[in-house]
Amino acid sequence: MKQIIIVVTALIFSTTTYAQFQVSASGGYAISSAGMKLGETQTSSSTENSYGSYGEGLNAQLRGTYFFNDAIGVDLSLGYLHGSDQTVSKVNLTGYEVDAIARARAFGAAASIVYKFNPNIYARLGALVKLGGKTEAVVYQKATFSQAEADAIGVPLGSYSETNYVEDYHGQFPLGFVAALGYEHPLNDHFSLFAEAEYYGISLKRKDSEITEFNTDVVLADGTVAVRGLYSLDNLPAGVNKTTTYVDELSNDNTDTSKELAVKVPYSSFGINFGVIYKFKKSTADKTN
Questions:
Q1: Residue 2 pLDDT
Q2: How far is CA 2 from the centre of its chain?
Q3: What is the pTM of this model?
Q4: Torsion over CA of 202, 205, 210 and 211, rounded to 10 degrees?
Q5: How far is the CA of 262 from the CAs of 139, 206, 209, in angstroms?
Q6: Is residue 16 pLDDT above 70, yes or no?
Q7: pLDDT band for position 4 (50/70/90)?
Q8: Which residues lie closer than 8 Å to 174 by C-beta, 6 or more apart?
Q9: Is the distance from CB of 129 to CB of 174 less than 8 angstroms?
Q10: Which residues pair with 129 in a beta bridge?
Q11: What 3-state DSSP class applies to 285?
Q12: What are the φ/ψ torsions at residue 26 (nearest 5 degrees)?
């Protein structure tokens, strides 16, 4: 208890004798660090796994940092991730093609401890959460009709369906961690430029999904659209659910196709950020005396 009192007293004293607040804005690009399986590429001769992380892509951050002394501070940041396309399914078979990608559109926040090794080099370590957003799947599917299917629709053999749809996936509240090492280059008393390497360690457990766009056209062999909007968001084909809920357990006799077992998807990444810092005027004991 005595040691805690000493630490708190020292922190309060340092805050009253030295305080500096700064804000920063940055942008950067992150690559996958998880390397988990996200999908498959299938042809008539082989099937190949595709790996990655939904944390890959462009990001932007706004950050506020408060330094208690010339070495230790606390940091709160808000960020947006504009994720790169990740292959979920790519199929190229006779009479059947699929091109499905998914990408993150997410907002997050982090709270970190900042430590300055010297006036230029610093490190951050803290907790990371996702505030909102989605993983957006964009799917294209082409399926050639059998003779019976073509006859039922009233089109010649060789015709096919083209389906395009978008499905948004949402996750449960996740908690991860963030670590960064950076270099700051002062321009004057108020402005600095910085570059940093940043690691995000986080994964997201799916909660639900919703189809937000859906359209199926019937196309003749020469590319002419014979029937527009055979299926739509308000008229989905049998077996396709507009919403899906992800759960941890399903009974063996479950017949509700709108429920599926939950999975975790990776958002971990390693990135480089560049930005600018604005430092407000220091408050020190020397300046108040």
A1: 46
A2: 44
A3: 0.85
A4: 70
A5: 21, 6, 11
A6: no
A7: very low
A8: 129, 130, 202, 203, 204, 205, 267
A9: yes
A10: 109, 175
A11: helix
A12: -150, 165
